[in-house]
Amino acid sequence: MDLVSYAAVLALLTAVTVAVMTWAGVRLRLDAVIATIRAVVQLSLISLVIAWAFRHPAAAAALLVVMLAAAALTSTRRIGLGRGVYPLAFVAILAGASVTVGLVMGFDVLPGGAEMVVPFAAQVIGGAMVAVSLAGQRLRDDVTDRWGEVEAGLAIGLTPRQSVAEFGPRAVARSLTPGLDQTRAAGLVTLPGAYVGLLLGGASPYEAALVQTLVLVGLLAAQSIAATAAVVGLSRTLGERRPERVAA
Fold first, then answer.
1. Dihedral sign from CA coordinates of 169, 140, 220, 224
2. 198 membership: H or E segment, kind and range
3. Which of 192, 219, 220 is CA-nearest to residue 208?
4. Is the entire prediction scored with pTM above 0.85?
5. Please, how many CA atoms are within 13 Å of residue 240, restricted to the half-sphere of its CB?
6. Which residue from 158, 130, 156, 161 is spatially nearest to 143, judged by alpha carbons?
């Protein structure tokens, strides 16, 4: 790959994003530029780390722990209820990822060793992180907007968790919508990244389809567990005091 052309395309795509945001009046232009720069730097560095981990399988577990910690930190920031949410986010993401990765490894359905398990686990952790962030944000906003109903529940003797229980299913459902849409559209509207990557790496279309299906279904399992755990954990905190709405 020609690195000069590669850099030029990245710059042009970023410029297009900023131009469209400017035209639409979206105040996230700097965020888009920073996100692009971070992606380039982080992916370059993580490529070196992963290449090293492939040669030292024992290090793969440590790498996944670091990813998990970073994912929990990102979700904590997105939920916007303070640093106290971090342990909850960490446990929720860990629960979703560990069940999914544990089942896949237990049945030994992924070919290869660390070079397959690490990318799969990383995708699952990332998906669980997104689900926790979306579920937490939706639950926080619903409780804020309908705080009068929560107070009414508390007034008649409901516990803080019970007073916000009705908002939980909708928060979980909203967090699962992107994953459900991605799974429904796979092969019909889009060719997901793992499928394309395996094809480029020389796998047969059939093998690529098997792995991609495993990724998509595994993501749904991890996201459902993580989002549900996050909502259950956040319910008591949100029922005790009215949270502030956080600007997008």
1. negative
2. helix 193-200
3. 192
4. no
5. 6
6. 161
Radius of gyration of the chain (CA): 20
Give the closest residue to 215 by CA, choosing from 187, 194, 186, 243: 194
Provide DSSP, 202-213. T--HHHHHHHHH
**How far, in Å, are 3, 17, 130, 146, 227 from residue 33 at the CA level?**
19, 9, 21, 36, 29
Of 72, 74, 110, 102, nearest in space to 88 by CA: 72
How many residues are given for the chain?
248
Over the stretch 88-133, which tens digit does the pLDDT of each residue have?
999 999 999 999 999 998 888 876 666 778 888 999 999 999 999 9
Q: Tell me which DSSP letter residue 113 carries.
A: S
pLDDT digits (tens, 9 = 90+) for 22-34: 999 888 889 999 9
Q: At 6, list the tokens.
A: 């590669």
Query: Do 225 and 99 contact (CB within 8 A), yes or no?
Result: yes
